[in-house]
Specification:
The chain is of the alpha/beta class. The chain is 38% helix and 19% strand. It has a 7-stranded parallel β-sheet, sandwiched between helices. The chain has a 3-stranded mixed β-sheet with strand order 9-11-13. The longest helix is centred in the first third of the chain and has 25 residues. It starts with a strand and ends in an 18-residue tail after the last helix. It binds sulfoquinovose-uridine-C1,5'-diphosphate. The site of sulfoquinovose-uridine-C1,5'-diphosphate (USQ) has 21 residues, from helix 8 and strand 10. Pathway: Bacterial outer membrane biogenesis; LPS O-antigen biosynthesis.
Length: 383
């Protein structure tokens, strides 16, 4: 299949490009390096410098004899996105091309505005580019489990049937996002659902939980193929952060009571899910929503896992409870359904001791490069 990956330079984007290329798909990766620029602007480096997308693709081709085409440009620009769609004529599009950080979206008015404009603007352009140049193509869109928030009932897989005053109907499961970033994903879902109804698009919206991990089948132990690993408060996800904190001898930053529970998955499983979604397209006029995670953990559970991995590797890992800079429930019910991807064939990789220790060993190779000042800055959710 010809698969167009929008946001192909990102933490999940680049590993997805390699995964689908290895599986025999024809892949084009597009990015405008927004995340790299934002990281520089607010002083958030990743654990190691990643080669640029052209260099990555050359390295991949030299190793595997498989090509990943690369285009650099802003998908908010209609001239650019239409030229990409015309040239590549995609059969599937994976859309990661969004500002992905909740804290970034809560920093100040300018970062909130950028998040809103970029995320909604790109989704809008992607929808219109599909309608104009590739109406049969299947769009696989990266959403987030955070769209649902933490309601006091079981979270269904995208849809809920409601009986009201003796009549029944099927609706999108209620959304209640906890940051502006997460809210842009809710708005994306509404935009997609509107155009699925109006124009009969084919869309899969993946509600993904926080991802952890660094190496995949395709990276092997070649560090030049690794995605960038953020450990800073703004772009790092919690488990990756805790692992780096442990390696640096920095106390693990548990926010508030630490009972915040989310659905987590390894990067390898995120790739499996994306491949499954692409290779099992939906019908025209269907919006399929899949809850994309493997296991639920509280922040305290994760801190405990990291502390024990540290002990096994001779590190002294301390856990610290900080006043929560975010506005979120710190103790809550959490029971989301997640059978859709298992039914499609997902083989989950769980968070085992081996997985933790293997990742910790890679991080320890870079421990001298960790800039501890980047770990905590306390971006506040409150005005
Ligand atoms: N947390 C801590 N200490 C830290 C960092 C985070 O206690 O040092 C807590 C947060 O308060 C939160 C939980 O850990 O309760 C998860 O935080 P996170 O930063 O790993 O995840 P989040 O901001 O929700 O965003 C990440 C990705 C985002 C994706 C989302 C999936 O950056 O792109 O959409 O995970 S989900 O959380 O399911 O919405």
């Amino acid at each position: 299949m010809r698969v167009l990956i929008l946001g192909g330079d990102g933490y999940i984007g680049w590993p997805t490009a390699m995964k689908l290329s290895a599986a025999g798909h024809e892949v084009m990766a597009v990015d405008n390096y927004l995340r790299r620029r934002l990281m520089r602007e607010i002083d958030c480096g990743a654990l190691f410098e990643a080669p640029n997308l052209h260099e990555r693709a050359r390295h991949w081709a030299a190793k595997t004899k498989k090509d990943v085409a690369v285009r650099i440009g802003d998908l908010n620009d209609w001239t650019f996105i239409s030229s990409v769609f015309r040239e590549f004529a995609p059969e599937a599009i994976i859309h990661f091309a969004e500002q992905p950080s909740a804290p970034y979206s809560m920093l100040d008015r300018a970062t909130a505005r950028l998040t809103l404009d970029n995320n909604l603007g790109v989704t809008f352009n992607v929808i219109h580019a599909i309608a104009e140049f590739a109406p049969e193509a299947h769009l696989v869109k990266l959403g987030t489990m955070g769209e649902y928030g933490t309601p006091n009932i079981d979270i269904e897989e995208g849809w809920i049937e409601i009986e009201h005053k003796g009549r029944k109907g099927k609706f999108l499961f209620p959304r209640a996002a906890g940051s502006l970033y997460h809210t842009t994903k809710v708005l994306d879902t509404d935009l997609l659902w509107f155009y699925v109804r109006m124009w009969g698009l084919r869309v899969t919206d993946l509600m993904q939980g926080p991802v952890y991990g660094l190496t995949t089948e395709e990276t092997g132990d070649d560090d030049a193929l690794n995605p960038f690993l953020n450990y800073d408060e703004v772009f790092g996800t919690v488990l990756n952060r805790f692992m780096v904190q442990a390696a640096a001898g920095y106390p693990l930053t548990v926010y508030g009571k630490g009972g915040q529970t989310r659905g987590y998955l390894h990067l390898k499983d995120a790739l499996q899910c994306l491949q499954l979604a692409v290779e099992n397209p939906v019908e025209s006029g269907e919006l399929r929503v899949l809850n994309q995670f493997v296991e639920t953990f509280s922040v305290n559970d994760l801190a405990g896992h990291v502390q024990r991995s540290g002990e096994r590797l001779g590190l002294d890992v301390r856990i610290e409870s900080l006043p929560n800079p975010r506005k979120e429930a710190e103790e809550h019910y959490y029971n989301p359904v997640h059978t859709g991807l298992l039914d499609l064939g997902l083989q989950p990789n769980k968070l085992t001791d081996e997985v933790m220790d293997e990742m910790m060993r890679v991080i320890l190779r870079y421990r001298d490069d960790i800039v501890t000042e980047r770990i905590f800055r306390g971006v506040k959710w409150n005005k």
